[in-house]
Design a protein that fits this description.
Blueprint (H helix, E strand, L loop, with lengths): L4 H7 L4 E6 L2 E6 L2 E10 L2 E6 L8 H12 L7 E4 L17 E2 H4 L18 E4 L2 E4 L8 E7 L4 E7 L2 H12 L2 H7 L5 H13 L3 E8 L2 E10 L16 E7 L7 H18 L5 E4 L6 H9 L3 E7 L4 E8 H6 L8
Parallel strand pairs: 4-5, 13-14
Antiparallel strand pairs: 1-2, 2-3, 3-4, 5-6, 7-8, 9-10, 10-11, 11-12, 12-13, 14-16, 15-16
Helix pairs in contact: 4-6
Length: 329
Amino acid sequence: MDFDAVKQRRALQSRSYVSLAPNLIHLKTAYGHHEAAFEVEAGIASVTFYHGDPVQSAELLMAAAEAVTAEDRSITSVVFEGHQTSLPRHIADADGRLDSAILWQWPSLWLPQLSYPLPPVQEMTAGRYHPRRPAKPKGTIYRRFIPWLERDITFTVADPETDLAAFHRWMNDEQVNTIWEDAGSIDKHREILEARIADPHVLPLISSFADIPFGYFEVYWAKENRLGPFYDADDYDRGWHVAIGEPGYRGKKWISAWLPSLMHFIFLDDPRTKRIVGEPRASHEQQIRNLDRSGFAKVKHFDFPHKRALLVMLGRERFFGDRLWVPAS
């Protein structure tokens, strides 16, 4: 059966799944409700459906594969009893086995908007030679169901018209301001958002759990960023900043969802991105522990004009090879 990425994004946008018992899942998509059992041996999960007709839907098979690999790092690949031929031939091997690292790099499962990366046309910005960056998208650009929270997480491009009030309140939060140092008037915060949206190297995002906004993120191209001169930045390295504005969404429970999801989005957004970098304050021990548990390597300390920082780095191969979309226990 032919695989239709547009159909897949539309059909699976609100998918969810729950564990009914050990190795038994209930899967809900636009195709209906399905129950599937699976057995794991030597890292291979063998899946059998009890209800529904997965033979008719490659999209449903991939949603089931996501469900069984979404919580368990030990599963390296998935096979479907009797349904292997329904998978896209360029995602499964000759035996119908679906490698989890390939599945989780398949963007149409999580990105509602897909576009081809720009060809590598170089240009100069403020003395830095870098690839031309794509036009900014609008709206929701990533959606993932988080099974251990039983709710979706989304990343949506920030809009000064709809997000200014929340952004203003978050930047004036005492804990956020300790790190960001951007407290001020609503006019100041409107200018900040508008400047980020106009800047080709920064993508400002609002993140929500179950449609409740909780934080502000910036994803940036490292080569044009203030971080770029401090290491040998690759053309497609990206970095990120975070401000969790809602106090009720701080802590390990929530970090276990938004941190791997943000890294997942960055790697999906451009397949040429091989590394994600960060520059936390060297004294921010809790943040550095979180990054360490999430697969980031500590590279070196260095000095910005405003802080002593630690350069951290997460490789694509590490993220997908070690299946870091599942948080450390």
